[in-house]
């Protein structure tokens, strides 16, 4: 199977590999997939509690080149967006950007799931922030 | 499984040592390059000696026939058979089909039970599945953790309706050698025919149809430095005489067992390949085993949590199948894309299923996804093995940095206890 240049680029130079502090309230962690399936993605976001802008994102992936590229791209894209803007990222956008073949589409779906899981985790930790942004400041 | 061998996306600080040309081919269980000596033997039959070997009435036919008979003889010598017992086919898949369907049809009155085992090549398994549709009963023996069948399981499985046992001599994925001689002995005692898919064993380890009590054996040209598109089936003529129902009709060639104009250049190539194997085997298997062991040591000495799949003791000297925990196979292959090997990962298979052979050993799916098969061949060198060892170690380390599973394992989390959100 031939890999697109963009997939190769993300594989060779993955963006934002690493980990953020799971215990911090500013950090949302998404862990999706399963080892038996050959795909596990961990995607973490650091969110500014006032602006809800994702200031940093890190990932780690167990999976094929397309899975690594999808999650690397995901961290690139979420950085600088607000949490709600990040939720708008669709797997089809990832497929298009990386020119993923049909057999690899599920990698992009998992990356989208990872973004949602990370945001979901952050939201759970910051229930008040979701409802009334101003009050989050007091809760920090 | 294809690899991108032109150097794109190569991230490594390692330069290949002098004399090592990239990409390196180390997938010799998938196929082998044609040995130059084989090509040389074939050339006249692709140029001036073009006759149909079945043309009885002129020199063109006689010369072609001569080439065929010489090939037949060379193959027979390699496996301890006589010329008359060699039937030519288009390859081992066809040989497996002919052996299994041919016996099933011919011995239908005697019984309808066939015994095989779960790690066979698809050419055997799919053929058995088809026979099940026709009303035959097939027993698929399990294998133990080391990949070998339990001989007691075999003894228990044989009943008065059993007409064939088909068990491979060497496994293509994990290189494990089944106890062929003992299986043959059991079959002889019970009066059941024994077929073996000998594709990966012939020419690599000693193989004798009489000593090993074999009645039928499949051979492939392109696995032993011969050309693709040609194979053979050994069919015993004495004690007992095996009869087969032909699967291809049209003229009655090959003693009525396989019709069709013979692939003369292919047969000449297959014959030459067999002869070369026979002459070179003692030295070559020592050399390849040393290279294989060197690669294994390089990997095992520099990485933790790597597991060899299949018996170490009963194995082809040139074969190595390793799982690298926490690293997925296709991503590993991508990282060593200047080296051609293959993986048991689902991502590399057409069906997105992980290797059924590794599953049969009881290897968890996660480790099956993390496996790489190395098949060292006649033309691999020590410099290549060293380079490959270094690249594999380097890439695994890099991918473990990217791996959430490695991170969790290092934190002391038992991955088996985690509840995963599978897609």
How do the strands and helices of this protein lay out in sequence?
The complex is a heterodimer of chains A (140) and B (423).
Chain A: H1 5-12, E1 27-34, E2 39-47, E3 54-62, H2 65-78, H3 83-87, H4 91-98, H5 105-125, H6 127-131, H7 133-139
Antiparallel strand pairs in A: 1-2, 2-3
Helix pairs in contact in A: 1-2, 2-5, 4-5
Chain B: E1 24-25, H1 36-46, H2 59-79, E2 86-89, H3 92-106, E3 113-117, H4 122-133, E4 137-141, H5 151-157, E5 162-166, H6 180-190, E6 193-197, E7 216-220, E8 231-235, H7 264-302, E9 306-308, E10 319-324, H8 329-335, E11 339-340, E12 342-343, H9 356-360, H10 365-369, E13 371-375, H11 382-401, H12 404-410
Parallel strand pairs in B: 1-11, 3-4, 3-5, 5-6, 6-7
Antiparallel strand pairs in B: 2-8, 7-8, 9-10, 10-13, 12-13
Helix pairs in contact in B: 1-7, 2-7, 3-4, 7-11
- CATH classification class of the largest domain in chain B: Alpha Beta
Number of domains of chain B: 2
- The largest sheet of chain A has its strands arranged as 1-2-3
Which chain pair shows the most residues in contact?
A-B, 38 and 35 residues
Task: Tell me what the CATH architecture of chain A is.
Answer: Alpha-Beta Complex
Q: Let me know the average pLDDT of chain A.
A: 90
Assembly status: heterodimer
Helix and strand element order of chain B: EHHEHEHEHEHEEEHEEHEEHHEHH
Largest sheet of chain A: 3 strands, antiparallel
| Spatial order of strands in the largest sheet of chain B | 2-8-7-6-5-3-4
Inertia-based shape of chain B: globular
The gross shape of chain A turns out to be globular
**Strand composition percent of chain B:** 5-15%
Give the termini separation of chain B.
25 Å
Strands of chain A, count: 3
Topology-level CATH name of chain A: Sufe protein. Chain: A
Total E-strand runs of chain B:
13
Mean pLDDT of chain B: 94
């Amino acid at each position: 199977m031939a890999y697109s240049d963009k997939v190769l680029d993300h594989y060779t130079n993955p963006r934002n590999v690493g980990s953020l502090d799971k215990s911090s309230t500013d950090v949302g962690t998404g862990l999706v997939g399963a080892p038996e399936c050959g795909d596990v993605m961990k995607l973490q976001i650091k969110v500014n509690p006032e602006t809800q802008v994702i200031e940093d994102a890190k990932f780690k992936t167990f999976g094929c080149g397309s899975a690594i590229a999808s999650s690397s791209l995901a961290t690139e894209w979420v950085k600088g967006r607000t949490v709600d803007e990040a939720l708008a990222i669709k797997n089809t956008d990832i497929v298009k950007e990386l020119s993923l073949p049909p057999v690899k589409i599920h990698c992009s779906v998992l990356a989208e799931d990872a973004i949602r899981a990370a945001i979901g985790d952050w939201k759970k930790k910051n229930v008040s922030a979701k409802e009334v942004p101003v009050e989050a400041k007091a809760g920090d | 499984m294809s690899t991108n061998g032109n150097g794109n996306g190569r991230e490594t600080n390692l330069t290949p040592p002098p004399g090592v040309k990239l990409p390196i081919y180390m997938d010799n269980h998938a196929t082998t390059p044609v040995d130059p000596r084989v090509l040389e033997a074939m050339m006249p039959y692709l140029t001036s000696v073009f006759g149909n070997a079945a043309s009885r009435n002129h020199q063109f036919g006689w010369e072609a026939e001569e080439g065929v008979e010489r090939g037949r003889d060379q193959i027979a010598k390699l496996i301890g058979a006589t010329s008359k017992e060699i039937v030519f086919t288009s390859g081992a898949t066809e040989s497996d089909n002919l052996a299994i369907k041919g016996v099933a049809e011919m011995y239908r009155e005697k019984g309808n039970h066939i015994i095989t085992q779960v790690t066979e090549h698809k050419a055997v398994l799919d053929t058995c599945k088809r026979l099940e549709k026709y009303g035959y009963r097939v027993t698929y023996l399990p294998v133990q953790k080391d990949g070998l069948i339990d001989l007691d399981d075999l003894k228990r499985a044989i009943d008065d309706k059993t007409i064939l046992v088909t068990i491979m001599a060497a496994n293509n994925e994990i290189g494990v050698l089944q106890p062929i001689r003992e299986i043959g002995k059991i079959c002889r005692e019970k009066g059941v025919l024994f077929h073996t898919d000998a594709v990966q064993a012939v020419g690599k380890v000693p193989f004798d149809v009489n000593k090993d009590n074999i009645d039928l054996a499949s051979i492939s040209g392109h696995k032993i430095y011969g050309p693709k598109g040609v194979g053979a089936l050994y069919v015993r003529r004495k004690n007992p005489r095996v009869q087969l129902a032909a699967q291809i009709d049209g003229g009655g060639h090959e003693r009525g067992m396989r019709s069709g104009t013979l692939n003369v250049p292919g047969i000449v190539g297959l014959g030459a390949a067999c002869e070369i194997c026979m002459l070179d085997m003692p030295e070559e298997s020592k050399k390849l085993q040393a290279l294989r062991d060197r690669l294994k040591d390089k990997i095992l000495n520099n990485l933790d949590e790597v597991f060899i799949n299949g018996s170490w003791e009963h194995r082809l000297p040139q074969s190595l199948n390793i799982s690298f925990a926490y690293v997925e196979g296709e991503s590993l292959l991508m990282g060593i894309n200047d080296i051609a090997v293959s993986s048991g990962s689902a991502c590399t298979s057409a069906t997105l299923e992980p290797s059924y052979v590794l599953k049969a050993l009881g290897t968890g799916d996660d480790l099956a996804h993390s496996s790489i098969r190395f098949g060292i061949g006649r033309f691999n060198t020590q410099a290549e093995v060293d380079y490959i060892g270094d690249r594999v170690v380097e890439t695994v380390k890099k991918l473990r940095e990217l791996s959430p599973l490695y991170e969790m394992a290092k934190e002391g989390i038992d991955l088996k206890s985690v509840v995963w959100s599978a897609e």
